[in-house]
C-alpha cells in the first residue's frame, strides 16, 4: 500500500501465499564483501524480500545457475527447496526479510556443495 506518506507492506497469516509461513528472520549490517547462504535446503521454501537497499541472490539447482538482483521491497524472490543459494553484493544499509515455510531445522541444510550436487541428481 502506498500513499503520500510512503509505502507499507503486509503479510497476514491467511494471505494467499505459496506456502504457510512458520518463521520470519532478517539479515542486516551485512558487509559489502560478505557472501551469505552457501547452502541448500531439502524441504524449506523461502521468500526473500529486500526491505532496504539491494543485494544479489545466486540460485543453482546443480546444473544451472541464475543470479537475481533484489532491489525493491515490492519484488521478492521465492526460493523452493533444492537450490544452492548465495546472497552477495549487499549495499550499505541493506536488509533482507525472509519468510520461511518451516521452523529452524539444522538437519534440513546441505552445507557441502558436492553433497548438494549428489543429492540434486539422486533421480
Ligand atoms: P545461516 O542459515 O547459515 O545464515 P545465512 O544463510 O544467512 O548465511 O545461519 C547462520 C547462523 O544462524 C547459524 O548458526 C544458524 C543460525 N540460525 C538460527 O539459529 N535460526 C534461524 O532461523 C536461522 C536462519 C539461522
From TrEMBL:
Domain Sugar 3,4-ketoisomerase QdtA cupin: 2-118
SUPFAM superfamilies membership: RmlC-like cupins (SSF51182)
InterPro entries cross-referenced by the UniProt entry: QdtA_cupin_dom (IPR008894), RmlC-like_jellyroll (IPR014710), RmlC_Cupin_sf (IPR011051)
This protein's name: WxcM-like domain-containing protein
Organism: Protaetiibacter intestinalis
